[in-house]
Amino acid sequence: MALEVQREGEHDFVGRNERGAEVRIGRNGQQGSFSPAELLQIAAAGCSAVTAENLITRRIGEDSKFRVEVTADRREGASELDAVHVEFDVDLSSLDEEQRVALAAAVDRSIERLCTVSRTLKKGIPVTENLPTGI
Question: pTM here?
Fold first, then answer.
């Protein structure tokens, strides 16, 4: 099974993968769902978090918690994002300044090299749609 999005009702969709995960998708501002643009931003933040996890936890502790916040620039009325900004919120107080700088550089390199979502967004790729016209 490929990834799918199924309409459940007016402005109400469910995205699914073959492992049983689901996500509610709706219009911007709709209660209980993510807008497609929010999902794009969450994907960038999630990919960065997953990619950096081992680097961070090896240095500050396997049970450490961290948060990744994501925002986007969007011109008023535009149907596109101009930029996505991913920011890590992690307590690095146990590291000295040199270790913090080294960790930040390692995280940046790792994301640049391994984060599929960020790499794809930076590259820009074709997206195709197909609506069947025959019977």
Answer: 0.91
pLDDT score at 1: 60
pLDDT average per 10 residues of sequence, the chain (135 residues):
91 96 93 95 98 97 96 94 97 97 98 97 95 84
Q: 22-26 and 12-16 as β-strands: parallel, antiparallel, unpaired?
A: antiparallel
Q: End-to-end distance of the chain based on CA atoms, in angstroms?
A: 23
DSSP string, 63-124: T---EEEEEEE--TT-SS-SEEEEEEE---TTS-HHHHHHHHHHHHHHHHHH-HHHHHHHH-
Give backbone dihedrals phi and psi of 62, rounded to 5 degrees, phi first: -60, -30
How far apart CA 35 and CA 102 sit, in angstroms, is: 36
* Sign, CA torsion 38/44/47/48: negative
Contacts of 89 (CB under 8 A, 6+ apart): 66, 67, 68, 69
Q: Could you give the CA distance from residue 130 to residue 135 in angstroms, rounded to a whole number?
A: 14
Amino acid making up residue 19: R
